[in-house]
Structure formats: C-alpha cells, structure tokens
Amino acid sequence: MGLSFILLLAVVTLAAWSVSRDEAKKRRVAAEFRCTKCGSLLGEDAVDAADKVHVEQMKQLREQHPGARFRIVQNIKAICTVCGQQYTYDEKEQMFAIYKRRWGRDSSDEI
Fold first, then answer.
1. pLDDT in tens, 2-50
2. What is the pLDDT of residues 65-107, one digit of tens each?
3. Quick one: how far is CA 64 from the chain centroid?
4. Alpha-carbon 26 to chain mean position
5. pTM of the full structure
6. At what angle do helices 2-32 and 43-64 cross, to 10 degrees?
7. Distance linking the first and last C-alpha atoms of the chain
8. 40 CB contacts (<8 Å, ≥6 apart)?
9. Is residue 77 exposed (0-12), middle (13-18) or buried (19+ Cβ within 10 Å)?
C-alpha cells in the first residue's frame, strides 16, 4: 500500500512538472514571436488572452448545459493583443502558427 502511494505520487509529480515546463517553454517562445499580421511581439499577454477566452467559453458552456461533461481541447494558444490574430502552438516545433478553424466560423471572427 505504501509503495503504491509513493509510486503514484512520483508519477503525479512528474506529470505536473512536465506540464509546467511545457507552459514555460510556450511563454518563452511567445515572448520572442512576432505577430504575422501586425508585427508586434506576442508576449505572455497573448497567451493569457487565449487562456482567458477559453475559460470564458467553458463558463458559458457550463451555464448553457448544467451538469454536462465536456472534453474540449484549447486550440487557440495565443491571441495578439494588438490585432487579435489567433495562434495555435506546435509543441514539437516550439512555434506558433496561425489558427485556422476547420469548421464553423473562420479564425478572423470575433469570439
């Protein structure tokens, strides 16, 4: 029982460390990435803006569908705070790319 708990704790700690490391990498890349539309640096504010929009969208879904469970991936990882261009993030390549919606509204629509 004790050994199982220690192993579980080690796995959870490693997973949390990995997620925080990936988030830090994404923020470092954003600090050096120039928007392809307006040329301004994205910076951490762009990542925070995308996170804020995602949280708000999830809040609206929960209000519209109380009790429902959602499995939604946050595709938009940064939003330029100057022009609103939306970006996704490729963790393998460690770079941002313009987000293109595959269905529904296109990426230039307001959220």
1. 777 676 665 656 555 555 788 899 999 999 999 999 999 999 999 999 9
2. 999 998 888 899 999 999 999 999 998 999 999 998 766 554 4
3. 23
4. 9
5. 0.73
6. 120
7. 49
8. 34, 80, 81, 82, 83
9. buried
